[in-house]
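Tip: read the tokens left to right.
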């Protein structure tokens, strides 16, 4: 048991949150992480409303521990998704990719704990003003969609911690006990880990994508498509097409046309390693095997305690 403001806020054993990643974070992963003492999140961004309802119901049957739902606010059907979250009695919601003012008070009025993901001090202060209970400070090392500022996690944490009074959760580039300890030393009250949990047995990612995570080395990912929404991708065939298009000074419409629809699903969920969009963080370079989520969390906490003791 580790006691921090985050374990108190979420009523968890450890201050470790599993990132609510699209196409990766279904009920199996969320319940496994929650059962192991962390906070599991269902990633609503890749789910139709009724699919989300099904995942929430299955998660409630699979764990009696707290879990939450991550909601990117730029997706359609947001009103339906929020209604389902309330109807199904979800107690914790992480919001991202949007204005925290839009839904925070609606959720808080229903007794739901609200956390917002930010990439800068400015947005952390806005989230605090909107009334959220905590913020996730995500550096641009992270996989998936990132902030435009390209601020690294270890510079972002102390800058945000200096300005806000609410708890701070560090994210981006953290995938080990050492990384967790470093984030806590810099002022984080907890950590959110995505990529390491994407490469677990319970992750809903395709086996091809999980193997890609294991194979990725430093320099194999890059932040691109900043004109649409900055996203960190594995350098595959699709990524090379994006880079070639950039040689011709493309318009936003050109980029949208190349991206098309459901490309992230094609890559991460269906396993198309050539033409799919493969989103993973820089920390994938230290991920060398696919393990059960319970083992991953145990390894992180064991290493955290051992390194802390050795210092």
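Filled-in amino acids:
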């Amino acid at each position: 048991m580790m006691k921090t403001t985050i374990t108190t806020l979420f009523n968890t054993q450890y201050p470790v949150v599993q990132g609510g990643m699209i196409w990766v974070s279904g009920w199996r992963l969320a319940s496994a992480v929650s059962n192991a003492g962390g906070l599991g999140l269902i990633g609503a961004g890749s789910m139709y409303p009724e699919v989300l309802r099904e995942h929430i119901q299955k998660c409630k049957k699979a764990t009696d521990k707290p879990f939450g739902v991550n909601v990117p606010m730029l997706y359609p059907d947001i009103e339906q998704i929020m209604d389902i979250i309330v109807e199904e009695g979800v107690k914790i919601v992480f919001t991202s990719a949007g204005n925290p003012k839009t839904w925070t008070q609606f959720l808080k009025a229903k007794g739901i704990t609200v956390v917002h993901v930010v990439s800068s001090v400015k947005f952390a202060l806005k989230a605090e003003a909107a009334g959220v209970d905590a913020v996730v400070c995500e550096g641009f090392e992270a996989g998936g969609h990132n902030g435009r500022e390209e601020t690294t996690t270890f510079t972002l944490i102390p800058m945000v911690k200096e300005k806000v009074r609410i708890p701070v959760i560090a994210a981006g580039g953290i995938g080990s006990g050492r990384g967790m300890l470093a984030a806590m030393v810099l002022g984080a009250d907890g950590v959110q880990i995505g990529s390491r949990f994407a490469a677990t047995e319970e992750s809903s990612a395709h086996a091809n994508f999980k193997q890609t995570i294991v194979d990725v080395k430093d320099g194999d990912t890059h932040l691109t498509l900043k004109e649409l929404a900055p996203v960190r991708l594995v350098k595959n065939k699709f990524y090379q097409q994006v880079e070639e298009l950039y040689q011709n000074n493309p318009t936003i419409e050109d980029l949208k046309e190349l991206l098309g629809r459901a490309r992230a699903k094609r890559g991460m969920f269906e396993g198309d390693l050539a033409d799919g969009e493969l989103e993973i963080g820089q920390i994938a370079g230290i991920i060398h095997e696919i393990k059960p989520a319970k083992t991953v969390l145990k390894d992180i906490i064991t290493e955290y305690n051992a390194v802390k003791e050795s210092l």
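The CA atoms of residues 94 and 119 lie 14 Å apart. The mean pLDDT is 96.
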